[in-house]
Amino acid sequence: xxxxxxxxxxxxxxxxxxxxxxxxxxxxxxxxxxxxxxxxxxxxxxxxxxxxxxxxxxxxxxxxxxxxxxxxxxxxxxxxxxxxxxxxxxxxxxxxxxxxxxxxxxxxxxxxxxxxxxxxxxxxxxxxxxxxxxxxxxxxxxxxxx
Length: 146
Description:
This protein is mostly helical and 146 residues long.
């Protein structure tokens, strides 16, 4: 049985394990994404757009669990790099939609090896990664204000 002192040990804190793991995962991705010219947050934006584009900034931000104000600089940088474009919606010209450029679509082919390289770096197969990811679902879906 854990004592009160054990409950307050840093090494026993879920929050510390998750923050440390998140930082280390991003560090694993960094050299893998560098040749693609992407940061980890930019990679996440591209993944979302490879799944479905065009889409609005608010829709994209929602899928990435970001505020639109946080997603906007990512979108602007990817647009400056020529990977995405913001276009006016044909039915509502006030609405901008984010879509892939030809270069952004072509980058997908180069990114296909990213998951395999990450699995190799952490010594896990796809099933192991899926189990770990699925184990985080109770934490990933909760918001601080919920």
